[in-house]
Specification:
With 92 residues, this protein is of the alpha+beta class. The chain has one domain. It has three helices and four strands, in the order ββββααα. The protein has a four-stranded antiparallel sheet. The structure holds zinc ion.
Length: 92
Amino acid sequence: MVIKQRKVAPILKELNRFYVDSDHTCRGPYFVDLAELGGNGQCDCDDFRFKVKAYEIPDLIEKGYWNRCKHIVAAVNLKALIAVRHDENKKL
Ligand SMILES: [Zn+2]
């Protein structure tokens, strides 16, 4: 499966916090914090704020599930990419 990359900007000196662009040009970037909700991550987009019940997330994680919007997934992907490239640079 091919997934288009979304524009994600890490926040300086904040390892788990990112700004992720919206698909809609009229909306600003969304703030994503990957350290929230037991490592599930939290986003301030409408989808996440109004559709996700935060109190259910710890149980979901225990059962092997995530409840993430596309902005959180994009931030997770960027964080993984940064970690992989950091490891590759250490090998050189
Ligand atoms: Zn979101």
